[in-house]
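Next up, a specimen:

>
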Amino acid sequence: MRKIELVADGGHINYSRDMMKDYGKLLFNEKPRDGIKFCIEQGIISKNGHPKKIAKFLKNTSDGLSKFAIGQYLGSHHTDPEVVKAYVDAFGFSG
């Protein structure tokens, strides 16, 4: 398990990747864009922030992500339309 080290009050605190992912989910539920940015910065989502990677995170991280926050993120005019397309495509709808 990869550890992420932060310095607080002169001491070092190690956080596991799972703990950082949990924090990213909480942040996403409050401020979706900030949560995605945090997850990219921490390597939870691929560093390049590729739309398919973001869509995969949104779809596969159903445990802990608010459906309302997902809708806010996908419906925002700031969100890359390729993320929305990749998210919808991830469900495999056909017709």
The CA atoms of residues 6 and 13 lie 5 Å apart. The domain at 3-89 is CATH 1.10.220.20 (Annexin V; domain 1).
